[in-house]
Structures are given as C-alpha cells and as structure tokens.
Amino acid sequence: MFRRGQSTTTAYLFLAPFLISTAIFFFYAFARAIYYSFTDFNLFNSPQLIGVQPYTQVVADPSFQRALTNSLIFAVVTTTLQTIFALLMAVALNNKLRGMAFFRSAWYMPSITSSVVITLIFLWLFQRRGIANYLITQWQTYQPLILTFLIGLVVAQVIQVLLERRSGLPARWTDPALAAVSALASLVVTAGLVWAGVTGPREVAPFDYQYFADKWITVGGVQILSIPLLVVIIQNTFTTVPTLMLFFLAGLQNIPGALYEAADIDGATPFQKLMNVTVPNLRPVTFYVITVGLIGTMQMFDQVAVIGSAAPQDTLITLAFYVYTNTFKAGAAPVNLAAAAAIILALLILAMVFVQRRFFPSEAR
Amino acid sequence: MKKVLTLSLGLALLAASASAQTATKTVKINGYGGTDQTLVNDLINRFVKPQMAKDGVTVVYQPLQGDYNKALTTLLAANTAGDVMYLPGETVDGFVATGKILPLNGLVSTTPFIKSLNTAFTRNGKLYAIAKDFNTLTLVYNKDLFDEAGVAYPNNNDTWTSLATKLRTLKQKLGNDYYGTCLQPNFDRFGAFAYATGWQQFGANGKTNLADPRFAEAFNWYTGLAKDKVGVQPSELSAGWNGDCLKSGKVAVAIEGGWIVNFLRDNAPNLKYGTALLPKNDKTGKRGNFLYTVGWAINSGTKNRAAAVKVLNILTSPQVQEYVLQQGLAIPSRSSLTNSAYFKKADPGAQNAKLVFDGADDGYVRAFTFGPKGPDWAKPINEALAAVLSGQKSAADALKKAQADMTTFQSR
C-alpha cells in the first residue's frame, strides 16, 4: 500500500522519540564522558586535554582499587547465587500443584518492591538490635528444646520404619505419614521433659553482632569480602531471584515433555533429569540471565547509596558509587577521574560479556 | 543514575523558569530546606522585602532539599544558582575553587563581625562570605540524673579528669541502664578535644600528624570513656545522635551545640537540663572548640550584583540578627550583640546560648573544616574512633592505621 520511501519515513517518525533520547542521553553523554576522561575537567573550568593521566591517577587511587575489588566480588558471588536459586525456584514452581498461582505471585513480590525500601528494611533487620540478631538469640535460647525435639523425631521415625519393615511393609525413611506420627510423639516427649525440668530454654546473653562495621572475611590476610557487602549480597539475591526465575519459568515451558518421559523410562532420578535435561535445554535462557545479572550487579549503586554512612565506606564502595561520589562533591570535583572510572567500568562489563559469549555459547546444543 | 538525571533536569527546568523572571529584577536566595525554609522566608518577609521593594526588586527563597552541597554544586555548574546563597564553613575550599563565589572585599564591611568568623571564610586574603550565625560545642547535662546519683553538676572549671570521675561515679550509682555520655565516632565532636591539647589540624607542611602524642592523649581520653560503658555510641542506644541520647533520659551528658535547645524543647519538654563549657585539658589548662558556621555568599555570575549586596547587608544587619537571637534560633555573628539582654535571661535555652557564645573565644577554637581535600579528610580518624569505641581494635593499633591511611590520602 505504501511506497517504500514513505513507509521508511513513517517508521523513523515513530522511532524518533526513542532515537533522539538515545542519541542525547546515551551516545552524546558517552562521548562526553570519554572526552572528559582525558582532560582536567572539574565541572567549572574549561577542559584541557591532558592525555591518559586521569586513568593512571584513578588506577593508583586506593579507594578505586577497593571499589573495583568490591564490584567484581559482588558481581561474581551475586550472579552465581541468584542464577542457581532462580533455576531451583523455577523448577519448583513449574510443578502442577494446587494454588500454584498464589506461590508464583507471592514469590515474585520482592522484585516489584522498590530496592530503596528493601534496603531500608534490611538496614533495620541487620541492626545491632535488629531482627537478625534477635532470631539468633532466640535460637540460642531454645536450642535445648529444638534439639530434644529433633532427636526425638529421628528416633521415633527409625523405630516406626523398622517396625513396619519387620511386618513386611515397604516403608521409606522419609515416609510423610510416619513422620507426622513421629513429630507428634516427639512433641509429647519434649513437653514431658520440659515439665519434668530435664530440659528447657537457656539463659543467654543477647547476640550482639554489628553487621555494618569494618569487618571482613579475609583469606591469607587479604580482605576479600566485607560483612556489610555480604548483607547487600543477600538482599540483592533476595530481590533479583524472582525476576530471573520468571525467565527460567518461560524457558521451562518450552522444553518438550517427551524428553522427561524418555528420561523417566530410562529410570532417571529427579536430580539426573535436572542436570541432563533441564539445564542443557535452558542454555539460551541461562546465558541471558547471567549476562543481565552481571551487568546489573556491576552497576549496583542504590543499595550502597541508601546505606550511606551507616557502614564504613570502604566496606561497601562499588565502581558506580565511586563515580557518583567523585562527580558530586561540594564545589569543584574531580570529574575527569570519575569519567575515567566510568569508562573502565563500561569496558569491564563489555569484556565480561565477550568472554561469556566466547566460552558459553548462547545456542542450545 | 537515572534518578540523579531526572532530579537535575527538574532542577534545571525550575531554575530556567526562575531566571526568566530576572528581567523584572529578582534576587534569588539558595539555602537549606527543612526548618530554615520557614525561618528564612520569615526573615525575607519581615526585613528584606519591604526594603527591596522600594528598588523594584523582588526576593525569592529557593531552598535546596537533601544534600545542600551537592545540589548547590549542580546549580553553580549549570549557572542557575541563586544570586545570594548559604556557604557552609566546612565546604568553603571546594566552592572557592569553582571561581563562582564573589570575593566580598571592598563590597561589604567586615569590621562589625567576630574576627574568627571572618577568618573562617577568608582564603588567600579574600573574604568569600559573611557569617550568618555560628555555633560552638557545649556540655549539656541532665540535672535529674546528677541529683539522683548525688553527683555534682558539671561546671566551667571541670577538667578532663574531674569530668570523667563525675561520669564514672554517676554510672556506678545509677547502674547498668544509665550511661555517662554518648560518644559519636566522629571528628565533628572528637576534634574539639584534640584541639584542647594544642594539636594542630594541619602542620607547617600542610600535612596532618595523627602520631602526635597530643592527638593520642585526646584519643585515649575520649575512647577511654567507653570502658565500663560510661560512654556509649549513640547507635548502641538506637539513637541517631547525642541529642537523642540525652532525650532518652538514660544519658547524663551530651556534647552538642546550641541546636540541641530547640530539639529538647520539642522532643523532651520535661527534661531539666543545664549547660557547662567543655572541660579543660589537664596539661594545657585550656579547652578546645569548633566554630560551626554558615555564611552568606554572592554568586560571581549574578546579574544584579548591587541588589545582591544589599540583600546580603540586610540579612546580616543588627536588626535581623537580634531577631534571630530572640527567637532562640541561632547565635549572631556581630560582636556588638554580645551585650544583648537575651544572654542574661534565666531560662536554660538562653544560658546555653550564652555559653555557646562564650565558647567562641575560650581556649583553642578553630573553624570546623576539613581543609582543601574535603570531608574525606576525616575518614581515617572516624574509622579509628569507630573501631576502638566498638572494641574491635586497641587505641594504639587504630591510631597506627589511621596515620597510615592519612598519609596515603594526603599524598594523593
């Protein structure tokens, strides 16, 4: 209906808002950042080219080195954790169970909540008098009771299964019906022991761990991962797993059921099916999930900014935060250093994606 | 990054619409948000607008919410900042380096103002702002706790040792639920004690020496209070700052400036408190103190320089400062107001104001500033304080690391 030229014009017209904003806020901004990274720009002077000096300065800056280490460790640990958990959750949610719609939406909740709000909640959870420490204190207080109950449960289960087998019935160690009876019996025994005064809650001093302090997990004297960053890793995994799970879930729906039927006939265990059918067939999705995960974690900024001065800066500083703090200071700021750091960050992410493409082909085998 | 972008865009738009009005001669003032917003608007309506209206100039106050320094930096870089603006004493160096702050020499008379405050805003012989008001640190104490423990109130003759003894006795008498004082792991409070020993923030070569025995003396005294929980960090009491600590009624003494008065009036109206000057160092016999101050500065790019200077003069005039003092809002920067009747009143707020004023020239008083490299300068000290106060490091180890970090920082 349209002549060729006309339809192209129409297409560009519709694409224009997107193209213009990309050109201004991405390409132009990126070009400016590259230019600034070779100058002595401080927001207020007229920039003069000074070569690669900003880069050498940035690389020599100890807080940049810390930021780089923190970012890399954060990216690797978080991406690994979130990919594994997302896959397991997707597999669990792919079952046909009653009320699955509820679980799917409930598990997706953390992803739609603002990360700033979640960070504030985590800040409260991991305070010195926060819920994390409270729960640990409770666990220590009731440890004797819980242990008594668990031992009772195991003993009762063993006795029951042995009795069943002696009467010639095929009972598994994990039989749920027998477990329910065992739990009930163990509960009665524990209650009896508490009443008799044999066991009971202990008096313990409140667990008093400070999470947002200058504490590090060290390997051979080298500071690898700080405790505050570990809290951020837990939080980040908690909030990103649901989104990634959704991608895996979509991927799972595309795996032909016949493959699982064939595996069943061959007598594969659930774990073998996961490793030999599900994981290889999800390869394109996994590639996407890891790429998105790496880019997202390398650029992590908001959590660090919200926690702010609640934790010592070295424990949390990331590359994105380093760029931010060096751009927005009181008055003149080393914007050239910030630009150089931003370019290094961009190159790193680019390199990561290329390495991944090289060694983990995105095509399904 | 997205948020920052939207924010700066929004600000730029706002500023653009405001600058469009300059044709009708508008003087725009940038300052803090929060309580300052009401206060400055009140001042503008009462004192500035009536006088400026005669010249056909309108005056608007544009508060910058959130981090003032960052917001002002953005506006200055985009050439959309106000004609007159707050210039915080601790960030003078960074803003002077931008070249966007107008030197006031020859434009404004500096003689009526307290000398040390003028010094705080002078760089290389050029004065960049006139102090709007100032604050120093005082010792604010909870009278009931001292009465209950039967310990004498802190007074202006206390030394480090006598004050520590009072706090220890109080803690012993009142038991585990009560504390002598809150210790912020910050140079903002600790620095005053370091100054009392005669320690210099920057040596002759411009470097900071944390290995100085005088610095160590102050450090050991300050962190030594944490032994037996006589001094605790505010975070241990789920408090944000020393004022919160005092408000809780479980802490006997808070080291804070005059801003604590309004806070206590609003948040702990029944708390009976008194004020004393900071204790004297045993060896030097002097106290140390900080001058916290914010000045009025003029944008060097302003199109209405004459009007801006006039606005600045009105804002620092005796009438305005007397009004601010009477309202109990801040301590004036004019030396002539020392004789104000307000200082002789009997209420605890006025007495606190008197001691804040006296603190400005008693002992080793220095402007609260971090030097040319900005607030990061204080990081090694803050980290050392935090590590010792939370019991993770010994004072000697923490100081050693702090000195090493400081050397790296300053050689960058």
TrEMBL record, chain A:
**Annotated GO biological process:** transmembrane transport
Indicate the transmembrane segments per the record: 12-35, 72-93, 105-125, 145-163, 175-196, 216-234, 280-297, 337-355
Q: Which UniProt keywords apply?
A: Cell membrane, Membrane, Transmembrane, Transmembrane helix, Transport
Cite the ABC transmembrane type-1 domain residue spans from the record.
68-356
List, alphabetically, the Gene3D superfamilies matched.
MetI-like
Membrane topology qualifier: Multi-pass membrane protein
List the SUPFAM superfamilies hit by this protein, alphabetically.
MetI-like (SSF161098)
Task: List the subcellular locations.
Answer: Cell membrane
Cellular component, GO annotation? plasma membrane
Q: Could you tell me which InterPro entries the record lists for this protein? A: ABC_transporter_permease (IPR051393), MetI-like (IPR000515), MetI-like_sf (IPR035906)
Task: Give the CDD domains listed for this entry.
Answer: TM_PBP2
Primary location group: membrane
Q: Which family does the record assign? A: Belongs to the binding-protein-dependent transport system permease family.
Please give the name of this protein. Binding-protein-dependent transport system inner membrane protein
Q: Report the source organism.
A: Deinococcus aerius
Give the classification, highest ranks: Bacteria, Thermotogati, Deinococcota, Deinococci, Deinococcales
Automatic annotation (TrEMBL), chain B:
What family does the Swiss-Prot or TrEMBL record give for this protein? Belongs to the bacterial solute-binding protein 1 family.
Which cellular components does GO assign to this protein? cell envelope
UniProt keyword Membrane, yes or no: no
Q: Where is the signal peptide?
A: 1-20
Q: What is its main location?
A: other
Compartments in which it is found = Cell envelope
Q: Which domain of life is it from?
A: Bacteria
Task: Write down the Pfam families for this protein, in alphabetical order.
Answer: SBP_bac_8
Keyword terms of this UniProt record: Signal, Transport
Task: State the name under which the record lists this protein.
Answer: Sugar ABC transporter periplasmic protein
